Amino acid sequence: MIYNMVxxxxxxxxxxxxxxxxxxxxxxxFESRARFSTWLFRISHNAVYDxxxxxxxxxxxxxxxxxxxxxKIEPGALTRPKQDQQPDQALEQRELRQRIEQAxxxxxxxxxxxxxxxxxxxxxxxxxxxxIGSSLGTVMSRLYYARQKLQQHLKFES
Amino acid sequence: xxxxxxQAPDPADLTLWIDGELDGDELARVEAWVKxxxxxxxxxxAVHAMQxxxxxxxxxxxxxxxxxFFNQRILRAIENERxxxxxxxxxxxxxxxxxxxxxxxxxxxxxxxxxxxxxxFYMGTQVSQVSDPVAPIVKVSAKxxxxxxxxxxxxxxxxxxxxxxTVIVLEGLEDIPDDFELVGEPQHSGSASTQAVTVSRxxxx
Lengths: 158, 205
What we know:
The complex is a heterodimer of chains A (about 160) and B (about 200).
Chain A: H1 2-6, H2 9-26, H3 36-58, H4 65-68, H5 70-73, H6 87-105, H7 109-120, H8 125-132, H9 136-157
Chain B: H1 11-18, H2 24-35, H3 39-57, H4 67-84, H5 86-92, H6 95-130, E1 154-158, E2 167-171, E3 181-183, E4 196-198
Parallel strand pairs in B: 3-4
Antiparallel strand pairs in B: 1-2
């Protein structure tokens, strides 16, 4: 989830570590009303939005080409899932993945987050609402428009 | 919600419908509306295809590139947090003291400042009294010193008690030449070449 939000390997791992440390510190305050994974996602959500806010201020007006050119940073990345496919299949899947990532990256942070939580992480609406601190209606509405935009971007990419 | 014949369901209901989570009357209403708007059926199919592609290509989790290093860094950070946290304060014995100081510090700040101002005022009055010009002169019994530009000349200071006078005797002076004119009173001479020294009784005895 963090990687899909920050779009940068090194920052994603740094943030992940930060989230684990924050979770460790906040563990005594964890109440079993929510699932542990939801609670951890909630901490991740806060860390990611802090990061995005900070980097938006620092990088205001800049366009980081690498963000949109996944082909430039992704090949050979150790974070890729292991692939035991034929080279042509692997290439095709890699291109498809790049297309999806590029389309995701063009969504707003709020839209990207609900899509990632729903489609990638497979969470239900209630969990997503708890994580992002919004109502169920907001989650579903946001998801509807996010999917529409994502489809448009994917069509454009292809 | 939502559906009269031409009123579209709201986005939340459409999301539930696309995800197959609508049931009962709500589902019936949306299905009835969608019959007249087949583009929404196409949209639902497109979303389902997109979901499949995303789930097949974007992993829900990935392993860190160097898991040992990643975990070590977290453990080290947690260890540092533990050392810098309350346990270390307890270990040093400063934790409770600093907490108490912090708690009562703000209440003590105002009276402390007032006392400090009064103390400064009192010290200020004491300093001005010392430098008062009408204060009695303290007698200093230091022996007077006389500066002698010629190192061969020595000055002896004599202060006989009964006379109340001070006599300075110079020793080692060169002899005064005979042609050197000494006068007892100021003299105004018309000749510029005449060397004259005017002395007063206070200097020559």
